């Protein structure tokens, strides 16, 4: 056996060679697999979804005026063709001067970076190309590890193999962060220079190109000296790469920064309206708030910026009803009653996003409900007209309900017209009681004001849940539009980030709740309420119909005050009160405050818009006769003239009222019951025939209103006899 001992070293050497070959093969295979993984594994690191950038949504008017931007990241996508060449060159010069030469990885830079890392025994320097930076921003973390760097290389190679240089640069310029919540070159240009990226100068482009390395440190607002130094470095690099001449470099380096802050970014006058837009997009078009913040939509809305600004400024700074516990809140709506489009919305005195939008908060409507719940439904019957006489005296109804007039005064009886204009509580409750609660609730349901309440207090708006200012505006629209209601809306259409219209407002079917005649009667009566009734506070010189409401606590203090009404163009509501209810939240004033403020707002809008002076009577309806004011006759007198043998003709005279519709009834005093001997219309004279020479008769005149069928107070008495 010893004779083979000399072979053992050979065998051991062979085994070593064999294992070395196996290891080498494994290493080669691993290298090949690693190379293939790096070369083709980028698709595992980069997803198509990651390449879709979050983009802000614009809310704008039909005229193209941007009123607000909605976003998580303040970014607006821009085509590379809209970015000036000198701006592109600035970014390439400072970030990756060999961008157009390498294939995603710049090996010269890598060797330099690796050398410095070895010397420092740590990862201290990057050698990232623009493509690598884009890859990192798409789906990788910011930690400096070899694994992350490997993935970055994989992603960069994938991007270079699947996208052109221009596409990569476009993605990069749209994705990078510029500080202060701004992403992408377009939003950065707007934020720092108040201009689109397409209009950036060489110096401005260089300033922006220098910011992504340290956006906060190089902010032209917070650190102008550092920003200028960085900008000048970018300009120097542009000269090194041949993008600009040395002379131009010197000129641009001497320029001021030119950055300008946008003061309008802090304004909040549009917030209430946009809050409704966001809610409507979710409810009506299934686009969530989060999707709006990243989806890059253009939402075209019905806001009138003139009306919205005036309304917001007045609600913020106007005179409000005083209260016992700090600032009283308010909410206003202004709707185009022809279409249902909301022109202005104010959800609070200084509403900001995230606040309670009080346009959507329900409160007891008080007497503002009377036209909708009582008088409108009454006029839809054959039994009641605007001049039907209603009782106006304190009385008790079912369940010991005893309403009182707000001023404690009672006239005994009033016309429906007067009861509405002067907001008589007892008359309204009596009328609802006569019609029936179920009958009235049917109308409220059609008006979008459904209620579970079952008591007569519905007539006075004392409801368990109440209605929102927006609901009240939609309901009052029925009087302005021939008795028809429709839903309000803010959004005209929505476009996706490609400019394609994906949603468009479709006008819904109108529901006729009241007849055109009833609606017109209500318009004429509500104009009277504004001119001389409970809504007469303030001054507005154009056409306005409306009603006030003052809701009280049980012990008499006020808690909600309203004005609801309409012009030939708008229907609007204004509520004032506290968000909370209870003993400590009381108002020290009434509905005159929202009435005056609404008239102030309309007056200011009128200065800009020249609103109409009168309502146009719809075809096929009759005008409501003006109320007849009953006169007091105190100057009646009489005379006799000879008309035959022993016979006289008597004449009774008085001063007639200016209204020639007034009827004057002449009564003769008789024992037992006085007798009406005649009547005249619009005149101040009455003839008494066949008056005997020895007769002595006493007469008096009683004015009579043919509209209401009521008589007035008797005049002074006139006695006719021979001694006269």
Helices and strands in order, then pairings?
Blueprint: H1 7-40, H2 42-45, E1 57-61, E2 66-70, E3 74-75, H3 85-95, H4 107-120, H5 130-139, H6 146-162, H7 165-175, E4 182-183, H8 185-193, H9 202-209, H10 224-240, H11 246-253, H12 271-285, H13 289-295, E5 298-301, H14 305-317, E6 329-336, E7 342-346, H15 370-379, E8 389-392, E9 412-415, H16 416-421, H17 425-435, H18 437-446, H19 469-480, E10 484-485, E11 491-495, E12 501-504, E13 511-512, H20 516-532, E14 545-552, E15 558-566, E16 570-577, H21 592-609, E17 637-644, E18 647-653, E19 663-668, E20 675-681, E21 685-692, E22 697-705, E23 710-711, E24 718-720
Parallel strand pairs: 1-5, 3-4
Antiparallel strand pairs: 1-2, 5-11, 6-7, 6-16, 8-9, 10-13, 11-12, 14-15, 15-16, 17-18, 18-21, 19-20, 19-22, 22-23, 22-24
Helix pairs in contact: 1-6, 3-9, 3-10, 5-6, 5-7, 9-10, 10-11, 14-21, 15-17, 15-18
Describe this structure in words.
The chain is of the alpha+beta class and 724 residues long. 36% of the residues lie in helices and 18% in strands. The protein is elongated. It is built from 21 helices and 24 strands. The protein has 4 domains: 2-40; 73-259, Penicillin binding protein transpeptidase fold (Orthogonal Bundle); 314-488 and 507-609, 3-Layer(aba) Sandwich (Beta-lactamase); 637-720, Immunoglobulin-like. Helix 10 (224-240) runs antiparallel to helix 11, helix 14 (305-317) packs antiparallel against helix 21 (592-609) and helix 15 (370-379) packs across helix 17 (425-435). A hairpin with a 2-residue loop joins strand 17 (637-644) and strand 18 (647-653). The strands form 7 sheets. It has a 5-stranded mixed beta sheet. One of its GO terms (molecular function) is penicillin binding. Residues 64-238 form the Glycosyl transferase family domain.
């Amino acid at each position: 056996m010893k004779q083979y001992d000399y072979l053992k070293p050979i065998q051991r050497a062979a085994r070593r060679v064999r294992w070395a070959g196996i290891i080498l093969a494994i290493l080669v295979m691993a290298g090949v697999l690693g190379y293939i993984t790096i070369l083709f594994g980028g698709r595992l690191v980069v997803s198509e979804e990651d390449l879709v950038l979050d983009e802000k949504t614009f809310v704008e008017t039909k005229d193209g005026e941007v009123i607000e931007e909605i976003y998580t990241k303040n970014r607006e996508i821009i085509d590379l063709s809209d970015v000036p060449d000198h701006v592109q060159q600035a970014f390439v010069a400072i970030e990756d001067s060999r961008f157009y030469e390498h294939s995603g990885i710049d090996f010269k830079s890598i060797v330099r970076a690796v050398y410095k890392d070895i010397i420092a025994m740590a990862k201290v320097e990057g050698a990232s190309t623009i493509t690598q930076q884009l890859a990192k921003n798409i789906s990788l973390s910011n930690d400096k590890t070899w694994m992350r760097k490997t993935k970055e290389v994989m992603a960069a190679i994938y991007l270079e193999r699947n996208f052109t240089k221009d596409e990569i640069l476009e993605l990069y310029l749209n994705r990078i962060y510029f500080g202060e919540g701004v992403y992408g070159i377009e939003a950065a240009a707007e934020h720092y220079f108040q201009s689109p990226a397409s209009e950036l100068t060489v110096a401005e482009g260089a300033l922006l190109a220098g910011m992504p390395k340290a956006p906060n440190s190089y902010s032209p607002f917070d650190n102008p000296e550092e920003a200028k130094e960085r900008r000048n470095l970018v300009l120097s690099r542009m000269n090194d790469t041949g993008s600009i001449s040395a002379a131009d470099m010197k000129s641009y380096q001497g320029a001021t920064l030119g950055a300008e802050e946008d003061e309008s970014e802090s304004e909040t006058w549009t917030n209430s309206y946009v809050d409704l837009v966001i809610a409507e997009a979710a409810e009506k078009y299934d686009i969530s708030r989060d999707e709006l913040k990243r989806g890059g939509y253009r939402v075209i809305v019905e806001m009138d910026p003139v009306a919205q600004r005036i309304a917001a400024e007045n609600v913020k700074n106007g005179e409000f009803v005083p209260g016992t516990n700090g600032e009283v809140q308010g909410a206003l709506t202004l709707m185009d009653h022809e279409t249902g489009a909301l022109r202005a919305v104010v959800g609070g005195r200084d509403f900001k996003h995230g606040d309670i939008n009080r346009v959507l908060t329900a409160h007891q409507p008080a007497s503002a409900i009377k036209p909708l719940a009582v008088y409108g439904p009454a006029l839809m019957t054959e039994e009641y007209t605007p001049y039907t006489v209603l009782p106006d005296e304190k009385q008790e109804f079912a369940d010991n309900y005893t309403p009182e007039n707000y001023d404690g005064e009672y006239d005994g009886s009033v016309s429906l017209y007067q009861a509405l204009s002067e907001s008589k509580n007892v008359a309204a409750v009596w009328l609802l009681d006569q019609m029936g609660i179920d009958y009235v609730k049917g109308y409220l349901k059609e008006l979008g004001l459904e209620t579970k309440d079952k008591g007569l207090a519905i007539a006075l708006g004392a409801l368990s849940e109440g209605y929102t200012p927006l609901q009240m505006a939609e309901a009052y629209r029925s009087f302005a539009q021939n008795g028809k209601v429709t839903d309000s809306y803010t959004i005209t259409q929505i476009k996706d980030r490609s400019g394609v219209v994906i949603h468009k407002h479709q006008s819904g079917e109108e529901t006729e709740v009241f007849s055109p005649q009833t609606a017109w009667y209500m318009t004429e009566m509500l104009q009277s309420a504004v001119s001389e009734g409970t809504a007469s506070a303030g001054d507005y010189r154009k056409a306005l119909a409306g009603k006030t409401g003052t809701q009280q606590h049980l012990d008499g203090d006020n808690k909600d005050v309203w004005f609801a009404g309409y012009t030939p163009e708008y229907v609007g509501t204004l509520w004032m009160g506290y968000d909370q209810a209870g003993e400590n939240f009381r108002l020290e004033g009434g509905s005159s405050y929202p009435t005056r403020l609404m008239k102030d707002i309309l007056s200011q809008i009128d200065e800009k818009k020249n609103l109409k002076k009168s309502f146009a009577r719809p075809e096929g309806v009759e005008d409501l006769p003006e109320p007849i004011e009953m006169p007091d006759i105190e100057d009646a007198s009489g005379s006799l003239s000879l008309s035959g043998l022993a016979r006289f003709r008597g004449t009774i005279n008085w001063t007639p009222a200016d209204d020639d519709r007034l009827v004057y009834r002449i009564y003769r005093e008789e024992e037992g019951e006085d007798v009406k001997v005649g009547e005249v219309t619009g005149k101040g004279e009455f003839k008494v025939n066949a008056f005997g020479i020895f007769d002595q008769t006493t007469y008096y005149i009683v004015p009579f209103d043919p509209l209401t069928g009521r008589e007035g107070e008797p005049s002074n008495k006139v006695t006719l006899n021979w001694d006269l």
